[in-house]
C-alpha cells in the first residue's frame, strides 16, 4: 500500500481533502498548503508508488510497466483502508490526470476536484518532448531527461524554486521506477482525448499560473465545453502554482472547497428531509 499521512479535525462532519502530487514529486510538495488546509479540513497526503516513502509495486513479469488504472487504484485502496467514502481531491501536474481518472473509475468518491497546473492536452512542444524522451530514455541518464523537461515546462527564473523542488524529489526515484512511470506517456494522449470528450459534471476548479504557457491554453478551451468547471489564473506563476504562489493557491482553493462543502451539506439535508 502507498505511504500516506493524515491530519484529522475533531469535527466528525469535517470533509476530507486528498492531495495528489505529480510524477517525480512526493507529498512534500504540498508543504506550503498543509498549515492552512488543516484548519478547515481533514487532510490526506499520499506518496504515489515508487515516490517519496512509498515502495515500488511489484508488477507481473509479463507487464513491466504501470498504467493509469494501476496508480489510480492505489489511491482508492488507501481511501478504503481509512474508510473515506467521499473526498475533495487536489492535484498538481500529472496528479491531475490521476484525479480525473479516479473520477471515471469511482465518481461517487469525488465531491470536487481542484486541478493545479492541469494537463488537459499535449501541445506540439509537449508531444515532441515525450517523443524525444521515449527515444533516448534508455541511453541518457534519467535525471538529465527530467531536469531538461523541468526546465522546458518551468523556464523562468521565477520558477526556479518549483523547478529545483521537483528535480530534487525526482532524484529519490530509482531509474527503473522512472522508466515504468515514463511508459505512462504512451497512454496520455488517448486518455486526455477521452477526458476532453466526456464531461463528468463534477465541480472542478482549474488553478493555473499565467506563465504556464504549455498547458494553460488547453484549460481555457476545456472550461467552455464542460459544465461545473471554472478557471482561475494566478499571476506571476508557472506550472507548479502551489509552490510559486502558495498564498494565492491556498486562498482560492479553500474558498472553492468551502463553497462546495456548503452545497453538499445542503443537498444532504434536503435528501434527509425528503426521506422523512
UniProtKB/TrEMBL annotation:
InterPro entries: AB_hydrolase_1, AB_hydrolase_fold, AB_hydrolase_sf, Epox_hydrolase-like. GO terms for molecular function: hydrolase activity. Gene3D superfamilies: alpha/beta hydrolase. Residues 15-118 form the AB hydrolase-1 domain. Keywords: Hydrolase. PANTHER family: MONOACYLGLYCEROL LIPASE. This is Alpha/beta hydrolase fold.
Amino acid at each position: 500500500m502507498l505511504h500516506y499521512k493524515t491530519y484529522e479535525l475533531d469535527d466528525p462532519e469535517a470533509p476530507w481533502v486528498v492531495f495528489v502530487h505529480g510524477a517525480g514529486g512526493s507529498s512534500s510538495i504540498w508543504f506550503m498548503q498543509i498549515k492552512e488546509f488543516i484548519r478547515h479540513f481533514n487532510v490526506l497526503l499520499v506518496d504515489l508508488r515508487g515516490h517519496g516513502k512509498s515502495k515500488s509495486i511489484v508488477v507481473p513479469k509479463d507487464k513491466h510497466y504501470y498504467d493509469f488504472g494501476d496508480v489510480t487504484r492505489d489511491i482508492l485502496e488507501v481511501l478504503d483502508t481509512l474508510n473515506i467514502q467521499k473526498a475533495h481531491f487536489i492535484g498538481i501536474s500529472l496528479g491531475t490526470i490521476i484525479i480525473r481518472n479516479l473520477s471515471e473509475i469511482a465518481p461517487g468518491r469525488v465531491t470536487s476536484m481542484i486541478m493545479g497546473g492541469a494537463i488537459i492536452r499535449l501541445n506540439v512542444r509537449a508531444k515532441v518532448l515525450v517523443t524525444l524522451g521515449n527515444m533516448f530514455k534508455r541511453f541518457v541518464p534519467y535525471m538529465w531527461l527530467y531536469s531538461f523537461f523541468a526546465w522546458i515546462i518551468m523556464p523562468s527564473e521565477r520558477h526556479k524554486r518549483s523547478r529545483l523542488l521537483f528535480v530534487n524529489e525526482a532524484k529519490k526515484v530509482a531509474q527503473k521506477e522512472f522508466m515504468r512511470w515514463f511508459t505512462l506517456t504512451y497512454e496520455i494522449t488517448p486518455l486526455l482525448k477521452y477526458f476532453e470528450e466526456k464531461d463528468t459534471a463534477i465541480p472542478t476548479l482549474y488553478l493555473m499560473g499565467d506563465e504556464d504557457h504549455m498547458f494553460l491554453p488547453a484549460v481555457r478551451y476545456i472550461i467552455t465545453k464542460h459544465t461545473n468547471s471554472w478557471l482561475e489564473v494566478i499571476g506571476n506563476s508557472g506550472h507548479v502554482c502551489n509552490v510559486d504562489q502558495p498564498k494565492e493557491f491556498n486562498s482560492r482553493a479553500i474558498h472553492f472547497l468551502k463553497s462546495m462543502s456548503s452545497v453538499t451539506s445542503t443537498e444532504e439535508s434536503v435528501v434527509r428531509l425528503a426521506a422523512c
